[in-house]
Write a sequence for this structure.
């Protein structure tokens, strides 16, 4: 299994970025696919996730990104994306995609995901 995240970069406050996570070795619609981020020196935190199709495909977001970030899944491309709008300096972090099959109460827990991408750095300058 491999998750390849891409799309990070350096942008100014208020700009947009789109991250992509291409999966190989697993089918994204059969897994919960999540995005986490980690600032230097801090713990990895939940950004958002999309439930596997069998669980309805519902999408969840952290309060800090709700209304600005959008997760989508392209089953044909076996890809999950994170559209990030109105970026703030506080969004600066390494962003990771992850795959797993967590119970609903554990979707925000990093331990619920067994597969991780390598991370892509997003830097938002003010």
């Amino acid at each position: 299994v491999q998750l390849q995240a891409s799309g990070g970069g350096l942008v100014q406050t208020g700009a947009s970025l789109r991250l992509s996570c291409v999966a190989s070795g697993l089918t994204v619609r059969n897994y919960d696919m999540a995005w986490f981020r980690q600032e230097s020196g801090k713990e990895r935190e939940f950004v958002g996730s999309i439930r596997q199709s069998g669980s309805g495909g519902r999408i969840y977001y952290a309060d800090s990104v709700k209304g600005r970030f959008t997760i989508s899944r392209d089953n044909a491309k076996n890809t999950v994306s994170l559209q990030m709008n109105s970026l703030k300096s506080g969004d600066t972090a390494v962003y990771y995609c992850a795959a797993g099959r967590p119970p609903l109460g554990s979707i925000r827990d990093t331990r619920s995901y067994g597969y991780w991408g390598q991370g892509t750095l997003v830097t938002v300058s003010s």
User: Anything to note?
Assistant: The chain is about 0% helix and 50% strand. The mean pLDDT is 97. The CA atoms of residues 32 and 101 lie 6 Å apart. The radius of gyration is 13 Å.
